[in-house]
């Protein structure tokens, strides 16, 4: 072993090697950083020899210096690979939380890129030549698309909920039905966020039944708000009863209590018209009597991550003046993408096609089958293929009871196991996230765009080459 260790070359000698010089020129890495990685590579190989984790026979075949520079190359490759990467979503879940939820439309991407590339009037009135407010940039569009009196944007819907409770109900009681004390992804609980905000939770009713009189009897001089939470990520069925915002409206008016509804998913386009789910729209919630509504930007809205607060002007004005409004504000690229997304809703004739989220949700099974057939046309015959009826999910904690009829493509090859193929597709570039069904790779083309076909073909060709 000592004999092998003595073969490790000195760092100054390795730096004179042509391979080091080539890496320095080709990879655009500084001399100091490349030297550091070279030292780490030598140290790793020395440790591998001492712990017998390196096969000495194999090391002899490869060569000591070649093994060192191979390790350095791996470090460079790891350094040059971005942590946040593009993924081809073959799961069929449209709003896949782990894969970034809503995909932006073309105009939103263009607007965000242009805004990032140059200076912008983020907080500057071009007409008046003086300082402006970023709140004004999208407020008119939110009002136009929802019917709200006023609106503002924060960095996500959890922040929107927190701001509403903190600014309008601190040290006051907020009445919530026990059937609506939900927990969503990341262990975000309504009860916990209320505790953090300083508002006092007052639970009414039971898990499955809450009546009007439960709210009525719970009101005291300390009550600031009645909060309705849309249970978008689960459904209680059977022996149930809840009270709608419209039923609570007279009670709120009579007692001068804020009626607040957290919609979460935030639909502006009414999917019920297409026979998909029973998701209420933001405009419906406001028309039914909600003083304030909060919802996400990157779910059914189909835009960037944001928390949108819409409702009565007197309450929105108070929220804008609260110190947390600055803490929770969004940046220029988010506002640019959100503005472009909201503009698409002005034209109901085209919004279904312009926004990838709506387009994917509304795809018919026949349209998906046609996409698969187009994909299969140039596919190598080494793959055994099968089309099968399945269901897709909306995802993102939205409409859990809704199943979207779809067609999936099953791929298999006797030379490679489904699990191996699944893993190789996931770790390659671009990454492909699939499912395994009946020991075959399953791809749902509801969430695969035709523009991604060439990259998916390329990834499958890479697997073919490995099987030869």
Automatic annotation (TrEMBL):
Cofactor(s) this protein requires: pyridoxal 5'-phosphate
Enzyme's top EC category: transferase
Family matches, as InterPro entries: PyrdxlP-dep_Trfase, PyrdxlP-dep_Trfase_major, SelA-like, SelA_trans
UniProt xrefs under Pfam families: SelA (PF03841)
EC number, UniProt record: 2.9.1.1
Cellular localization per UniProt: Cytoplasm
An example Gene Ontology molecular-function term: L-seryl-tRNA(Sec) selenium transferase activity
Xref: Gene3D superfamilies: 3.90.1150.180, Type I PLP-dependent aspartate aminotransferase-like (Major domain)
Domain of life: Bacteria
Keyword Cytoplasm: yes
Family: Belongs to the SelA family.
Protein role: Converts seryl-tRNA(Sec) to selenocysteinyl-tRNA(Sec) required for selenoprotein biosynthesis.
Protein name per Swiss-Prot or TrEMBL: L-seryl-tRNA(Sec) selenium transferase
